[in-house]
Amino acid sequence: MIKRKFLSLCIAILAGSFNLSAQTGTLSSQLGKLQSATQTAQGLLIRAENGQVFLSVYQPTIIRLRAVNQTFKPDSSQAVIRTVTGGFSKLTESSTEILVNTDSIQVRISKSPVRFSFYNIKTGVFLSGDDERIGLSWNGTQVSNYRKLLPNERFIGLGEKTGNLDRRGSTYVNWNSDVPAYALNADPLYKTIPFYIGIHDKATYGIFFDNTHKSFFNFGASTDDSMSYFGAEGGELNYYFFGASSVSRLIEDYTWLTGRMNMPPLWSLGYQQCRWSYKPDTQVLEIAKTFRDKKIPVDAIYLDIDYMDAYKIFTWSPKNFPNPKNTIDQLKGMGFHVVTIVDPGIKVEKGYKQYDEGVQKGYFATYPNGEFYTGTVWPGPCHFPDFYRPEVRNWWGKSFSALTEKGIDGFWNDMNEPAVWGQNIPDLIQFGAKGKQMTLREARNGYGLQMSRATYEGTQDILGRRAFVLTRAAYAGIQRYSAVWTGDNASSDAHMLLGQRLVNSLGLSGVSYTGVDIGGFIGNPSAELMMRWNSLGVYTPMFRNHSEINAPMREPWRFGPEAEAVMRKDIEQRYRLLPYIYSAFYKSTQTGLPVALSLAIEYTTDAEVYKEANQNEFLFGDNILVAPVESNKTSTSVYLPAGDWYRLSSDVSYTGNSTIEAAAPLHDLPVFVRAGGIIPMQTVVQNTSEKGDGILSIHIWNGKKGSSYVYYEDDGSSFDNEKGSYYKRSISFLPAKKQVLIDKVAGSFNSQFTQLNMVLHGFDTKLKNIMVNGKQVAISRAANGTASASIANQTSSISIGY
Ligand code: GLC
Q1: Rounded to whole angstroms, how far apart are CA atoms 748 and 388?
Q2: Could you give the CA distance from residue 733 to residue 612 in angstroms, rounded to a whole number?
């Protein structure tokens, strides 16, 4: 015994790691002292007493840090789509530290013990770095990073997380979970996006901890208030440090790294009606017809689990949908797109195609002995496709022909945490191709991403045009494949407001196409709540009404004629705004910036933005500010940030940097437009396939400051936009010159709008004419004082003087 102890002591000394944890494995270990630093074209390798760290440069503003206490394993990521672009531009060394630079960031590495700190290279400002006491740490398989917490530091992001906009003082876990009717402070929910943004003084930075194991983030919730930490139950200590100097640049960099969304099908941005479940087929047709009869615009109707035969994925219920092609043809005839749900669980039943094929080919997740894992979901006992394997994704993707051949072009991926009754799938269940195998501990948080990927790739391929994909579970990078919604919320004002924070936070975390179940999935909203939530839905990237099987029917006409009129008016507003919304999505495809933007993006250093009363406010696209408000209030205080603002519904103007009391009747959600803001609108259509009247109204609200706006249009459905078939032009408002300039069109697509209607809000009341390319055009005045003038659309530039 003594001999053995002596031997291991010698080994420890020889290995240079005289450290308790290395001996016993029971206590945590940290890096210890620096032993060597080697610079390569790929980065900088640091060897320390108890581990090694590799630093590499993805962009001058993006540095990756990988650390292990043993040896590096092969590199892999489900989120990251980029690789190293080069090494550090400069290295300097002193007796106490090593400094490496990019054009934007300096990393200072202290030698004893090894700790990492990041600085802005130009200003010399400290951005973020290790807590001197701990830094990088290993504790069994657990990896973590303890970081310095500054007195005035705020944290935002982390995706779909409850709590306040500023996450300081909170702690979170990522472990994708099925949480029906989640509590207002529930954690974890359905998604894992381990990317957050830190803000202090005038500095910003971001950290993406790319690790799919169960992970945790502690923003100074339970320490001495001088450190924050994050980590995971396994895997590598692997994070990307972002040093860009604004929140929007950080989001751009993060989505450069993890990808951006592609243009969605236009129809999916219209109003969507869902329910668990419309059945049988005659009910679906009747609901669709009622929308048309009542002239409530809508583009999509959903089929939840009851369209299937015994909940078998890729089948149709002979009872509920005996002739799906015919039913869907009729729906299409009424201008509807139909979305069907798919869950991952494949029913264990001999003779069922997907089961037989999956078993024969060995496509399901397994126990360690190779037997297929069985868990119970809607269909009863199920096996679960191993989406980590390319051949399984391919097989899954091709199976969608059972739905597409009937006319389906939207695919709703649910229960993909994955969820089973009883919740806790054994941790040892195995996924992944030979050589890349992993257990559920590593696979769970990425499972929904891989399922969405399989669905996205398969359905775009079969359809040959854009498909709409929606998912509940997700990991970082999900924006490349799918829209997301926030799962099984409940019918309450508090949930409505929480939902907005979830949407805003997802937007801070790279996910633009987001929605919540409007009205609340579980429960029964009052007419007031339904109206209010529907009016907020107008300004939600995905506008979907959904309710569970036991809830009373939830269509816009179920709450009495008054409520119906209000909801119709609001849904019409969504359709009016579609040119603006579509352009906002385009911007997101180019920059990764969300469509619903937390005020923290633009007004990062304004403390008002983080106050509980103001934290749900957001910008919708470039120029609209929305102030969500409970349904039982008829007026509310609204914080208007710097600049001048107009109320959208009345054109009453306000000076920003102030809190105003805004009337908030149920028919008029407090929505504001930025002075100088440009908003293109169309005339109401009943669905996006309707041609409309060919008039694009370009609304401009007068202001002291100039502005510019990019208008974007394409066919809304094909991939031709990727080959240059789009119609894009920028519009500039130049108040100093009393001019509006509409640039010449870029792209080869012909706009659906032949006529432009310039609508001027808040301009000189004596204005009688405008000059269009030097020619005088008369304006007409509406009762509310707006001035409008009609001009023929043309692809060359248009200069408007007023
Ligand atoms: C889950 C989904 C919900 C769906 C239901 C039935 O609860 O989150 O949206 O309606 O399953 O499929």
Answers
A1: 39
A2: 34
Strands 468-471 and 474-475: unpaired
Other beta carbons within 10 angstroms of residue 526's beta carbon come to 14
What token pair was written down for 689? 């396939």
Measured CA to CA, the distance from residue 750 to residue 725 in angstroms comes to 8
Residues contacting 492, CB < 8 A, separation 6+: 520, 523, 529
Task: Identify the residue whose C-alpha is closest to ligand 1 atom 12.
Answer: 305
Q: Name the residue type at position 187.
A: D
The pair of three-digit structure tokens given for residue 3, joined into one six-digit string? 């001999």
Residue nearest to atom 10 of ligand 1 (CA): 276
Using DSSP's 3-state secondary structure scheme, residue 288 falls into: helix
Residue 123, Cβ density class (10 Å: 0-12 exposed, 13-18 middle, ≥19 buried): exposed
Question: Which own/partner pairs from 371-376 qualify as long-range (CB within 8 Å, at least 24 positions apart)?
Answer: 373/425, 373/426, 373/429, 374/348, 375/345, 375/418, 375/420, 375/421, 375/422, 375/425, 376/420, 376/421, 376/422
For ligand 1, whether the C-beta of 302 sits within 6 Å is: no
- Tell me which residues are annotated as active site: 414, 417, 488
What pLDDT digit, counting tens, does each position of 34-93 carry? 999 999 989 999 999 999 999 999 999 999 999 999 999 999 999 999 999 878 998 999
Confirm if 185 and 165 have CB atoms less than 8 A apart.
no
176 touches 445 (CB < 8 A): yes
Alpha-carbon span 509 to 189, nearest angstrom: 15
* CB distance 488 to ligand 1 below 6 Å: yes
Helix 561-576 and helix 578-591, axial crossing angle in degrees, nearest 10: 50
Q: How far apart are CA 355 and CA 357, in angstroms?
A: 6
Task: Supply the DSSP symbol for 159.
Answer: S
Q: Tens of pLDDT along 632-691?
A: 999 999 999 999 999 999 999 999 999 999 999 999 999 999 999 999 999 999 999 999
Rg, the chain, Cα only: 28
Please, where are the H alpha helices in 672-788?
none
pLDDT at 25: 56
**Cβ of 621 less than 6 Å from ligand 1:** no
H helix intervals, 384-543: 390-399, 401-404, 440-463, 493-508, 527-537
178 lines ligand 1 (CB under 6 A): no
Q: Would you state the structure tokens that stand for residue 739, as one six-digit string?
A: 């001019």
Residues 552 and 777: their CA atoms lie apart, in Å, by 54
Separation CA 510–CA 191 (nearest Å): 13
Instruction: Give 225's contacts (C-beta < 8 A, 6+ positions apart).
Output: 149
Cα 278 from Cα 464, distance rounded (Å): 28
One-character DSSP codes across 620-665: ETTTEEE----TT-SEEEEEE-SSEEEETTT--EEESSEEEEEE--
